[in-house]
Write a structure and sequence with these properties.
By secondary structure, the protein is an alpha+beta fold. It has helices spanning about 1-35, 40-75, 80-85, 90-95, 105-110, 215-240, 270-280, 295-300, 345-350, 370; strands spanning about 110-115, 155, 160-170, 190-195, 200-210, 255, 290-295, 320-325, 325-330, 340-345, 350-360, 375-385, 390-395. Helix 1 packs antiparallel against helix 2.
């Protein structure tokens, strides 16, 4: 953050300097034009060059200001105690953990190490290394992660292995204006008891013990592979889990079918999603997001009018995927091709974390000790509660992009 602010100050100062020079050059050019009736090629080139530099600096200043605003919003949205923790990635926490300093002696002694890792955090500064790595020029940037369904659902925590809650299943409103000394009408609200168990999502991989000689590689592996793998399967469970065996009871098996309130002339996928928002609203749960397949979202973004102009997308700008003012989560799940899910994710469901994503390294698994290998396990424990199934609308995205 401090580096961005420092760069912002430098660009602002440079822009002021160039703006002053630009004004002076423009005045000189105007005086020359009045005197001789035209501009010399040398004067024209000088004015064009400084004008180009002025425009480039101005655009850079806008970009930097936007970056500062995004960072401030990100930190402001985090709890105060968690703000400092949010600057380390999963892999960075693993690498910088105090226990890593003794990992070699632990392996020789056959010990098992457990390193807790906080979920839902971002990568910022690289911490100091135990063994200084070879530095290459440039910046190694991690790819921007897409939104996941978890980003839409209300978060929660639990210390139990089962979530018990009461779900409202119906409401008949008989409220009315009544005269004095008369019987008041009764409304009817139906409830049902629900339980949802905590489920475990996990995976492992093996690596040579020599991988510990390269902490940057270990960090990259944990960040890019293990964390993404958990998120991907977690998303499948939240969406499609059937509640049997060790599966979560997902949203789609409980969601209501798309039933538009009215037909739209020349209906497209964009219209379908707006009608789904209306259906959720009529159920008294305003929608807070959409879930679409990557392919269907690309079709919608590429929709053009009769003059060939994009209706939604601006190819010159990178913006957060949104439609009708709501965030869009694009998924690669094949079950979503030609389908959509719209609903009140922030109030109609809640995801409870029993155990945050954590990494365990061991040499005791199978024949690891004999083969000089290590086993790395990454797992989490979560539970999903769907409070109001009618708050979610699932259906076919008929006419998407047409």
């Amino acid at each position: 953050m401090s580096q961005v602010n420092e760069l912002l100050q430098k660009v602002s100062a440079k822009l002021e300097e160039v703006s002053s020079d630009f004004s002076k050059k423009a005045e000189d050019a105007l005086a020359e034009a009045r005197k001789s009736g035209s501009l010399s090629a040398e004067t024209k080139d000088a004015v064009d060059k400084i004008a180009l530099e002025h425009n480039v600096l101005n655009e850079s200043l806008k970009t930097l200001k936007a970056s500062v605003g995004d960072l401030e919003q990100h930190v402001a949205s985090m709890p105060l105690n968690a703000a400092k923790e949010g600057v380390q990635s999963v892999g960075q926490q693993l690498v910088s953990a105090e226990v890593m300093k003794d990992i070699r002696s632990s392996m020789e002694g056959g010990k098992r190490l457990s390193v807790p890792v906080q979920a839902a955090i971002t990568t910022v500064d690289v911490p100091g290394q135990i063994i200084a790595p070879t530095r290459l020029p440039g910046i190694d940037q991690t790819p921007k992660q897409r939104l996941f369904i978890r980003d839409l659902i209300a978060p929660g925590r639990t210390q139990s292995n089962t979530i018990y809650y009461v779900k409202q299943t119906g409401f008949t409103n008989n409220a009315a204006v009544v005269p004095e000394n008369t019987t008041k009408p009764y409304s009817d609200i139906q409830f049902t008891e629900e339980t949802t168990p905590v489920r475990t999502i996990a995976h492992m991989f093996k690596a040579s013990k020599q991988i510990l000689d390269d902490f940057a590689q270990l960090q990259s592996t944990v960040d890019a592979e293990m964390r993404y793998g958990l998120k991907y399967v977690e998303e499948q469970e939240i969406l499609f889990g059937d509640g049997t065996g060790a599966h979560l009871k997902g949203i789609i098996p409980q969601a209501v079918a798309f039933n538009p309130a009215f037909a739209v002339e020349k209906q497209s996928g964009i219209d379908v999603l707006r009608l789904a928002m209306l259906q959720a609203q009529l159920a008294r749960f305003p929608a807070s997001g959409h879930v679409l397949h990557f392919t269907d979202w690309a079709r919608i973004e590429l929709t053009k009018d009769e003059l060939g102009r994009y209706i939604l997308a601006n190819p010159a700008q990178l913006t957060t995927p949104t439609l009708w003012g709501l965030p869009v989560v694009a998924t690669e799940a094949v079950q979503f091709l030609g389908k959509f899910l719209t609903g009140a994710f922030n109030s109609g469901a809640q995801l409870f974390d029993r155990e945050d994503a954590n990494v365990v390294i061991s040499t005791e698994n199978a024949d690891d000790f004999e083969k000089n290998m290590i086993s790395i396990r990454c797992e989490e424990r979560v539970a999903l509660a769907v409070y109001r199934p009618e708050a979610f609308v699932f259906g076919a995205l008929t006419g998407a992009g047409s």
